[in-house]
Amino acid sequence: MRLYDVIIIGGGLSGMTAALAARKRGVKNILILEREDYLGGILVQCIHSGFKDGDSTEELTGPEFAQSYVDKLDAHKIDYKINTMVLDLNENKVVTAVNPEEGVVEYKGKTIILATGCREKYNGNINVPMNKYAGIYTVGSAHKFINFQGYLPGKNVVILGSSDIALIVARRLLIEGANIKAIIERQPYIHSHRSNIVENIKDFNLEVKLGYNIAEVFGSERITGIKIAAIDENGRFIDDTEENIECDCLLLSVGWMPENDLSERSGIKLSQSTGGPEVKDSFETSIPGIFACGNLIHTYSWADDVVKEGYEAGNSASNYIDAHINRKV
């Protein structure tokens, strides 16, 4: 069993910044475990510009921003393993993982930082009748189709939800030749940041239906259209407000769920409000020496917030080692 001072599960932005913070504090043996075949998490599919590294005035794309942190990991000689799926984490800080090169392997950490992020909610999480037609995806899946595989999920698209990622995907679809028929938002306001409203909705003249929800989905094997209707403050449909929209693709942006499988297996106390690990101000979970940060504990729209939280979690793990591990030596 290999022993490390800090083991970080998740190689997204919060995981990488946590590792860098711990290294700057003098922690020597650090390992990042990432299940994908690249570091950077969701940043890698965010090919739009707008990211800034530190105090730099240069705007970077998501992949460039992620690569800047990978370069820092390499410069500080921080170990990381990609294509490595973590199968189990116990309260003794033993991590069981598997990858193609080593098979099943165990690592033990003096401290653990959980940075596994979150995943999108799917149609089973909302009260919309989908009937399992083809052409219905989450916005994150559509984003990956376009930017990774080069496929359009549909030509005539309706988006349910007005989050930042929903508007970014809408813009990307328009640029690639799709037609955005409407953005449906159940609340009476848009959830996105003001800059995204200007850069996407106003600049691209997108139609937004506020206070509406999907009442019905039409299709045979693939979706062919939807029926929407206005809803009241209790979410009930208002009579005589129905409207049919023809479309061959429906994208869902209806929230996020924390990737908390490892937290549950290890017995970490979960927050009733977020579903992710419950943490102290130091980002320590209910198990001493196990920390959590990033989108696992709270969904962020801005990379700067994730960077800050990753650094704080890395510093807290370093403090724990100084206070509880090194003191015993």
Give the tags.
329 residues, alpha/beta, 19 strands, FAD/NAD(P)-binding domain, 7-stranded mixed sheet
Give the number of helices.
7
Shape: elongated
Model regions low in confidence, pLDDT < 50 over at least 5 residues: none
What amount of the residues lies in strands? 25-35%
Estimated helix fraction: 25-40%
Q: Spell out the CATH superfamily of the largest domain.
A: FAD/NAD(P)-binding domain
Largest sheet: 7 strands, mixed
Which class best fits the helix and strand makeup?
alpha/beta
Q: What is the CA-CA span between the terminal residues?
A: 21 Å
The CATH architecture assignment of the largest domain turns out to be 3-Layer(bba) Sandwich
What's the pLDDT, averaged over the residues? 89
Describe the structure.
This protein has helices at residues 13-24, 62-75, 139-149, 164-175, 194-202, 261-266, 303-325, and strands spanning 2-9, 30-33, 49-51, 60-61, 79-81, 85-89, 94-99, 103-114, 118-120, 136-138, 156-160, 179-185, 208-210, 212-219, 223-230, 243-246, 249-252, 256-258, 290-292. It is of the alpha/beta class and 329 residues long. The protein folds into two domains: 2-119 and 256-328, FAD/NAD(P)-binding domain; 122-252, 3-Layer(bba) Sandwich (FAD/NAD(P)-binding domain). Strands 1, 2, 5, 6, 7, 8 and 19 form a seven-stranded mixed sheet that branches. A five-stranded parallel sheet has the order 10-17-11-12-13. It has a three-stranded antiparallel sheet with strand order 14-15-16, with no helix packed on it. The model has no long low-confidence stretch (mean pLDDT 89).
